[in-house]
Amino acid sequence: MSATPESVVTANLAACAAADKLAADIVAIDVGDQLGIADVFLIASAENERQVGAVVDFIEEVLLRVGIRPLRREGKINARWVLLDYGDVVVHIQHVEERAHYALERIWADCPALTLDLDAPLPAPIVRDTGFESDDEVLGWDDEPEDLTSGLSAADLELVASVLEDGEADGAETLPEA
Questions:
Q1: What number does CATH give the domain 5-114?
Q2: DSSP per-residue string spanning 119-142
Q3: Cβ(56)–Cβ(21) under 8 Å?
Q4: Among 73, 115, 125, 175, which has the highest number of CB atoms less than 10 A from its own CB?
Q5: Rounded-to-10 torsion of CA 33, 38, 39, 45
Q6: Which class for 153: exposed (0-12), middle (13-18), buried (19 or more C-beta within 10 A)?
Q7: Cβ neighbours of 167 (radius 10 Å)
Q8: How many CA atoms lie within 13 A of 53 on its CB side?
């Protein structure tokens, strides 16, 4: 049984996300007739471990935007070959050295490649209503500065006032200059 239209759409979304993070050599292979437990293998390369992680994270983010969650994720710790299992679509993001060594395309060479539209638009990020009107409100900031002297004793207030006037604390220990 060849790849379902839903699997092809999922693979294309993941491919577009990978391309957005500059993954290289992005290919999709229809493994449905040969494998039976998945429809599509999506394979992409990255130059280093950090980029592998960035590509994987963005694929997960983009697919979550449309409600698709991975069933499992493997290899994230080493970030040399990360596998995202979406059931019918399995995404392989490999460091270029792992890609050359394991040569998944060679293993699945008898399966047809799928055409990908890497320029397809990605779904917009999900914006959740936090109930706050601004970032300042989220952070607890308001227009009025907080009175930092509230709760200080009279002696402490005198010390603060003298420091503000003179630039040094009367009767307090000062640190030697470095």
A1: 3.30.460.10
A2: TSPPPPPP----S-SSHHHHHT--
A3: no
A4: 73
A5: -120
A6: exposed
A7: 7
A8: 7
Q: What residue type is assigned to position 54 of the chain?
A: A
Report residue 149's pLDDT band, with 50, 70 and 90 as the boundaries. Answer: low
pLDDT, one tens digit per residue, over 29-84 is 999 999 889 999 999 999 999 999 999 999 999 999 999 999 999 998 888 999 99
Q: State yes or no: pLDDT of 117 exceeds 90.
A: yes
Residue 88's contacts (CB-CB under 8 Å, 6 or more residues apart) are 3, 4, 6, 7, 10, 38, 39, 40
Q: Are 30 and 41 in contact (CB under 8 A)?
A: no
**What is the C-alpha separation between 104 and 98, in angstroms, rounded?**
10
Whole-angstrom CA distances from 141 to 9, 127, 134, 135, 150 are 44, 22, 10, 9, 18
Domain boundaries, the chain: 5-114, 135-166
Report the alpha-carbon distance of residue 176 to residue 26 in Å, rounded: 62
Measured distance CA(112)–CA(91) in Å, rounded: 16
Structure tokens at 20: 């957005």
